[in-house]
Design goal:
Radius of gyration: 24 Å
């Protein structure tokens, strides 16, 4: 009697564990798939300015960027000669903003794009986390 009960409990536990692993795998697969931007998607971009700017210039660039369609938030650093902003990709693109900045203002800039080595060294914690390893495993498994 006790052996039968133990077998049923172990069998039920095994099935529940297997089902949980399958649900977790499906969940990781779904949430790590690339998604098209929606109206609420925000993306960050950076513009490197070619000439030195002062605080007044930074204020003008910030105000100009805020006037652009789709720009959400702006930070401009005169010491670093850069502007960082968030934008809605369904409304604009950083390439459009940089072209417009270069043609309609006295400031010249170019969009910063990190190299592959810079991207690889981005966040060392993320590369060693369980979530990252699990998503890489399932992405490789399903060849995404």
């Amino acid at each position: 009697m006790k052996k039968e009960l133990l077998k049923k409990v172990l069998k039920g536990t095994g099935i529940a564990l297997l089902l949980s692993v399958v649900v977790l795998a499906v969940h990781i697969y779904i949430v790590t798939r690339p998604k098209s931007p929606t109206a609420s998607t925000l993306v960050m971009a950076r513009i490197d300015l070619k000439k030195d700017i002062n605080k007044d210039d930074a204020s003008k660039i910030t105000a100009w960027l805020y006037q652009q369609n789709g720009v959400n938030h702006v930070l401009c650093n005169p010491d670093g000669k850069l502007a960082v902003f968030t934008y809605y990709p369904v409304k604009t693109s950083p390439e459009q903003i940089v072209v417009k900045l270069n043609t309609t203002t006295p400031y010249q800039g170019e969009r910063f794009m990190p190299s592959k080595s810079q991207l690889a060294s981005g966040c060392p914690v993320a590369a060693t986390s369980f979530t990252y390893k699990a998503s890489k495993f399932f992405n490789h498994l399903f060849k995404i």
